[in-house]
Amino acid sequence: MTRLANGGVIDRQRPLRFMFNGKRYQGYEGDTLASALVANDVLIVGRSFKYHRPRGILTCGPEEPNALVQLVSDGDQPNLRATEVPLKEGLEARSVNCWPSARFDLRAINSFLAPLFPAGFYYKTFMAGRWDFYSRFIRQAAGLGRSPKERDAGRYERVNHHTDVLIVGAGPTGVQAAKTLAKSDRDVMVIDMQASPGGHLLFHSCQINSQPGADWVSQEVAKLQARKNVTWLQNTTATGYYDHNMVIAVEHEPAESWLKERLWHIRAKKVVIATGAVERPLIFPGNDRPGVMLADAAARYIRRFAAVPGKRAVIYTNNSTTYAHLETFKAAGIEIQGILDLRESLSETELGLARKSKVPVLVNARIKGVQGRAGVKGVTYQDESGIKTLSCDLVCHSGGWNPLIHLYSHAGGRSRFEQESAAFVPGERAQAAYPIGGANGTFSLDQGLKEASDITNSLFGESTGDTGSSTAAGPETGDEVCYRIDQIWPEKELNGKAFVDFQNDVTTADISLAVKENFRSIEHVKRYTTAGMAVDQGKIGNPNVIGLVSRELDQEQASVGTTTFRPPFAPVSFGVIGGSERGPLIIPARTTPMTEWNIANGAAMDEAGANFRRPFFFPRPGESMEDAVAR
Prior knowledge:
It is a single chain. The protein is an alpha/beta fold and 631 residues long. The strands form ten sheets. Strands 8, 9, 12, 13, 14, 15, 28 and 32 form an eight-stranded mixed beta sheet that branches.
């Protein structure tokens, strides 16, 4: 087991036993299934859909495309992301889409038959002969997890809620927004999909008001939760933003032990979107191997769960944020073999962080391939001096950050491409939706906190007096790393498969073929190649698809545009959709023109049928009903 002796939010006094793919493992209270698998050195967690290539854990959140599991121990639930399954005693899960096992999958023969399965192959084959013969094999290969056969024993409910302001996300900007608005005595509701508030402050060492960011969050949240005008929900995912400022959210594991999930219909006058951003992968041959992980995800497993994903790492990047993780990796005992940076030049801050951690940096370097099949054994790279190899068992890569603009787009908001951050950010507003922080393309913590105060102060045209007094002092390793990125695409001809959609096995060659076959609209390319049509809905992969299409068409990414963001943001169970609608019991009273006079003259009112309340008798002081009637 690769678990640090100290650190993280896990409770080492409460070990939990669980089973994965028939084998017994141990984790701790506070783990997710994914973090427990990382700590137990489980590399292969599943297989890809088309080629059945081995897959490992790639991310640490709801954007995970690889680690889909069938949760056998809790109602036989299919296609759950291991990154979002809280570990429990006796939990039992297994990989999906593999036979007979994830480590040895006979259907992996599809990988050798890849030339028969290019983009859109299903439109070009099965054109003649007996469909009833073909369909048997197609149906057996279709799908991932298996639908449960037993009745769902869980209990669900649906509630309605009205509030002045809904804040989606409880990271640093969401907390700052709530802090600002709560002072105005308006009704504020905060929902956050994580088990604990804080967002990236839980995984990065940065200071706010001369104290650790995580401590600042804990203090502010405690104050907010004590206020009567603030409703606070963790483990709650906003799945869709609809007309008239209605947001639908699913609360997982409510406080009531008898309730499995609760569906919230939230109507707000204003909605503040503080959902942050997700890291996108780089494109290189072998980027789907188990042991290849997003850099931020690797840092999160270390800092939050004390789970170390490897011993010897190579870092591959095109942006500055990766350098902030060096100290975390070194402190966890990971030997960093080198940083391969696609950019031609680095800032003094980045070079200083590398020197401090004693990590060699190679600029203008590209990974040409990943050695190993069931895990990483090394990488082949090319820089100005030629082609070389580095031995490693972990590749941490980062291709920049994508603001989570899904809810903003659900509301009808437009997006625009920002060249400086190489990402699509919120554009023209359609409803009363106000993105802040990472969700708005603001990647500086200091600027994000100020933006949260400024925007929330102006929501109702009034000031709360808070002008963003909480400012970030930057990471403990030095000044805050200014976000710098150069979006550099891979060569058109690659020696090996480079994936842009990990779950559906969509490669750079598939995107190129679709454009060659005259597909010009990004929506058509998406459907022809199935890029972004898997369970993760392209959260991390679609920006790369857009970039590749823009290169093939020789157009700007802004001209190519994005695919349509549709709800739900994350999968929603049928149980919670069909849950009973419960709320406060309300029986409206019906009155007559004499009701006010009767009450004023001391009448004892009682039900008289059809919700009418009428006088039954008029007692004097000290009289009983019998005395009043007799009088």
